[in-house]
Amino acid sequence: MKKIIHTFFFLGGMVSLAGCYDCGPRAEPTISLSVSRNDTPTSSLQRVSAVGVKSDSLFRQFRIKGGSGSGQLPLSLLQDSTTYLFYFADRVDTLTLFYKRIFDTRSECGYYLDIAEPDGPRFHSTFGNTTATYYPYTGKVEGLNGSGAYGILVDATSYN
Amino acid sequence: MKEISLFLFCIAGAMVSHLGFGQSVEIDTISSVRSDFSGQKRFTVGLDVFKNVPFLAFNNNLPLPAGQSARLHNRGIVEIVLRGEISDNFYWNGLAGFTRAEVTDPESIARRQEVVGWYGKGGVEWALGQRKRHSKLGIRGMLTYNRYATDLLYEGPSFGDYQTRDVVNNFGIGFEPYYAYDFFLGPRWLLRWETRWSHHLRVIGKGETPYYPGVGVSFGLYDYVVSGGSTLQLHYRFRP
Question: pTM of the entire structure?
Fold first, then answer.
């Protein structure tokens, strides 16, 4: 009887531990992106878009200030890359971000979605200096909080 | 009279427990009619006559304890049970089953799931008590196979939805202790009310299985599934 009670509490503990798992986005994930042009005179950024966009409501929320901007932009789930377009007053810069989509199932979440670093190049960019860092969208809550980062972070700067 | 009221109580009990869980019923014409054919091993063949009934009461739309929008549809179960006497008060028991079902959950990534499953169970049971021996206590092992085909939808408001179909073949093993109460309807017929507590471990496969064929409703569990159920089986006793 004692064993049964112990097993019961053990299983209960397992369930509550499983509750501390972040199962990530259930729909199109977003990336954190900041762009800037530091050339003089600075050309202003007018709008941001992407190839194949059906609704640009998220793009309109991208914060623009002069020649730079920052915010969350959606990632396409239809392919392993998304090409963003940055419309400056004098030209259009592009940034193609590559990634690996993961559609799978795990005991804590059932079906879930995650984005991982690609096997090949991370990006093609017309910005002079671009960095892309990949953090998982899913994982144990402690791990996600501990890293202090979430998802993909992209920074693109142009100096010319 | 007492027996009739007990029978009605059993039906009600089976109805209630079946709404949330899973499966089967059996009959034992064997023990009560042991005055005839004495000395010969008895053998019955039974068919589950209850599992599909509560489902009809829900108009083919049974809410699952999965969330607000999860529903079980078009579930059909066929189970054939064989029973035979090994010795006095001791019987073997075998069951072959087929289940198909659909689960829809418009609020989840897994919008629609179709499952087809086959399973076999076998074990032994003991008659309880000294005289009429209506009650049986038994345990069965089980082998299961099912194929879950899941339509997944990941919403993409900006670029478009990603849709795919994930097909998974699951194999598993398990065991289930059960209690059965037999109503002897005559020398040939027996109605069995059986209540089981099933434990199942998926050995090959993956994915959520809101309904596990051969086990029952299993939402929230993953590879190790526990479910219970109560059902009725009608058995016919063949001449030994």
Answer: 0.78
